[in-house]
Amino acid sequence: xxxxxxxxxxxxxxxxxxxxxHICAKKPKPVQKLTPVFREKRxxxxxxxxxxxxxxCIGLPYPVMPLGEAIVHAAAAAALEDPRFPPVKxxxxxxxxxxxxxxxxxxxxDAKPSERPHKIEIGRHGLIVRGMGTSGLLLPQVATEYGWDxxxxxxxTCMKASLSDHCWKNEAVEFLTFEGQIFSEQH
Length: 187
What we know:
By secondary structure, the chain is α+β, with helices and mostly antiparallel strands. Helix content is 28%, strand content 25%. It is built from 4 helices and 8 strands. Helix 1 (6-25) crosses helix 2 (67-80).
C-alpha cells in the first residue's frame, strides 16, 4: 500500500476539519479536489484533542470504504458519537486539534502468547485484540505517547476491549498488528 504524500496528508486533515465544522458549526460542506488515493479503500482513525486532552477518537480499522468517505465518516463519529464524551459543541471548535491516522490492513500477530511482546515494535505497530465476544484497538502512537513497553501495550489493549489485562497470555485471544501514517493539524 502506497503512503500518502505530505500534501495528501494535509488534504486528509482539511477534509476531517471541514467535516467537523460542517456538522458542529453548520459551515458549508468541505469541497476539495482529492487525489486518486482518496478513492482507495483504507482504514482510518480521526482523533480529536481539546488543549492536549483526548476529546474523541473513532475510526474504521479495516478498508471498507474509500478513504475520502472513511475520513468524513470517522471525523463525524469522533465529534458526535464517541461514547466517552458528549458531542463536540460549536464553541469548542477553535480549541480542538485533530489527527488523521491512515492505517495499513491489520494482519495477525503470528506468535505464541508468550512471544507476543517480542513481536511488537513500539512506535510502529498498532494493536487489535479480538476474543471472548469483544475487541479493542489502540493506535501505534498511543504506546509512544505513554512510554509503554510491548507488554504494557498488550495489557492496555486488553483493557480497551474490557478484558483482563493479562488476556494477551491466552491462546484463545487473537491479536493483530497494523501500522499508521499520522497527519496532524499545525496550530
